[in-house]
Amino acid sequence: MAEKTPHQNVSFASAGGEAHGYLALPASGQGPGVIVIQEWWGLTDHIRDVADRLAAEGFVALAPDLYGGWITHDGKEAGKMMSKLPEEEGARLLAGAVDYLLASDAVTSSTVGAIGFCMGGGFVLALAAQQGDRIGAAVPFYGVGQAVPDSYTGVRAVVQGHYGEQDSSYPAEKARAQEEQIRRESGAKVEFFYYDAPHAFHNDENPQGNYRPEEAKLAWERSVSCLKANVK
Predict the structure, then answer these.
(1) 116-139: per-residue pLDDT in tens?
(2) 211: domain CATH number?
(3) Quick one: signal sequence residues (predicted)?
């Protein structure tokens, strides 16, 4: 069982207003900054747990609440909420999270990392394209939705993707095409991993039963290594 980490709900300036999120700190109180971006279900206990796990690895992890407190476990409702959050709005809100971390005394890095799942995986790529060299590592898990950007010319981060060969929401052939597009347009270091698994295989609370523990463990280990190597 992971060591308990200090955590708190925080507010930060974003997109001309105030945004909220869940902040998990390492035992030392300081570390490199990482943004954790939610799935279409909202800022669930699972996403908070991901932030806690990153804090246990030494990161200052901030999970912004993109839905303003709304959470669901119904796929139709989640799809409606995702459709109401266009890339531009979500990326602006997440830009405030980048500003918050880089201004924090708890953050020791000059860049931040970004890791996200499902809709959040799309927003990881959008944020990396928007923020350029302020993002040290971008780690999308099976990114889908309108958050997936059309262009990756602004990406400067190392990109490590995790996608399922059995993913019907974002088929592997689309992920492979995306991998090549990012590499071609950004010139950044890009590496995608493909797993014998369906969509959302990392989520151990997934209401659709797609969790695959072995694949999730391997993807997590790779992700943590990528973040540690590139967020400085």
Answers:
(1) 999 999 999 999 999 999 999 999
(2) 3.40.50.1820
(3) none
